């Protein structure tokens, strides 16, 4: 496990927000049958969790800036530090009562992600990483998958939907990946997709049109677990590119090549 003042601040804030989120998730399943559905209830749960995270992080590190999914950008006096906060990653899963979502907090220092925490409150799985100190799942040290044969790989991806993203591009990419791998999965939470690559459950993951708060924490997790993370086009700035591709060195390089060829 990582024992540092920074990690203590991040884990305490995430666990505090998780308490209300887990309670609210228990309510969502009862609301599925209502005509209006749980949309407003989930938005309120999302905002409540974000306010908890915002208040806790600003109290502990008052000068840092924040990029919050719901509230947007909050400038800080310390321009070298920015939190990237997703209070509920996997919102659609949560809305439909699917127990696969997480809270994600990443810390950017002078343009590099240096720490990340991703917490799945339903499974009680806490993923943490800090630059140079490794990546952990509930105190267990993480390493990315050791598979090198794409035919054995399980690949996660993120897909656009009504009114968002390039559907044709994604379909071409999924078709190309399906043709050479052991399976493709769309789980619905970018943060957990990255965390699952870091712990070896998935071998690869890619997604386009994604936000910094979805991937910031997961980027450092994968890198500290010995994995490679680039933009989906292989660039070295996934946050700026708003896309991501990750895995171990061998399969990551092959995946980027497959995606490039699918769009040639
Ligand atoms: C979601 C991501 C998911 C992506 C969705 C959405 P949210 O984050 O985790 O991978 O495909 O479009 O961005 O909105 O639930 O925080």
Q: Which geometry do the CA atoms define?
A: globular
Structure summary, number of beta strands: 13
- Uncertain segments are none
CATH class division of the largest domain: Alpha Beta
Order of helices and strands: HHEEEHEEEEEEHEHEHEHEH
- CATH H-level name of the largest domain... which superfamily? Fructose-1,6-Bisphosphatase, subunit A, domain 1
Approximately how much beta-strand content do the residues carry? 25-35%
Q: Which value, in Å, is the CA radius of gyration?
A: 18 Å
Tally the helices: what do you get?
A: 8
Amino-to-carboxy terminus distance:
44 Å
- Name the hetero compounds present: L-MYO-inositol-1-phosphate
Strand order, biggest sheet? Answer: 2-1-3-4-5-6-7-8
Q: What percentage of residues falls in helices of 4 or more residues?
A: 40-55%
Mean pLDDT over the residues: 96
Number of domains: 2
> Tell me about the biggest sheet?
8 strands, mixed
Topology (elements, then pairings):
Layout lengths: L4 H27 L7 H22 L3 E5 L3 E3 L3 E12 L1 H5 L6 E8 L2 E9 L4 E6 L3 E4 L2 E2 L12 E4 L9 H12 L4 E3 L4 H9 L5 E4 L4 H13 L3 E3 L7 H4 L2 E4 L1 H14 L2
Parallel strand pairs: 1-3, 9-10, 9-11
Antiparallel strand pairs: 1-2, 3-4, 4-5, 5-6, 6-7, 7-8, 11-13, 12-13
Helix pairs in contact: 1-2, 4-8, 5-6
The chain binds L-MYO-inositol-1-phosphate.
L-MYO-inositol-1-phosphate binds next to strand 3.
């Amino acid at each position: 496990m990582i024992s540092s003042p920074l990690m203590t601040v991040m884990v305490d804030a995430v666990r505090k927000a998780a308490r209300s989120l887990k309670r609210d998730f228990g309510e969502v399943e009862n609301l599925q049958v209502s005509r209006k559905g749980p949309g407003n209830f989930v938005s309120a749960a999302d905002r409540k969790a974000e306010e908890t995270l915002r208040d806790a992080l600003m109290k502990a590190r008052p000068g840092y800036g924040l990029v919050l999914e719901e509230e947007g950008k909050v400038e800080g006096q310390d321009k070298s530090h920015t939190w990237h906060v997703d209070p509920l990653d996997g919102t659609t899963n949560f809305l439909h009562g699917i127990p696969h979502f997480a809270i994600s907090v990443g810390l950017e220092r002078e343009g590099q992600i240096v720490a990340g925490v991703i917490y799945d409150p339903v499974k009680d799985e806490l993923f943490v990483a800090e630059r140079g100190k490794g990546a952990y799942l509930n105190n267990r040290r993480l390493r990315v998958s050791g598979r090198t044969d794409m035919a054995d790989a399980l690949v996660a991806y993120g897909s656009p939907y009504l009114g968002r993203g390039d559907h044709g591009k994604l379909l071409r990419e999924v078709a190309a990946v399906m043709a050479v791998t052991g399976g493709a999965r769309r789980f619905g939470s970018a943060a957990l997709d990255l965390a699952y690559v870091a712990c070896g459950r998935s071998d690869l993951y890619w997604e386009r049109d994604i936000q910094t708060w979805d991937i910031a924490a997961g980027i450092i997790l994968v890198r500290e677990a010995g994995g490679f993370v680039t933009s989906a086009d292989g660039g070295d700035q996934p946050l700026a590119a708003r896309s991501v591709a990750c895995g171990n060195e061998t399969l990551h390089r092959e995946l980027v090549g497959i995606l490039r060829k699918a769009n040639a």
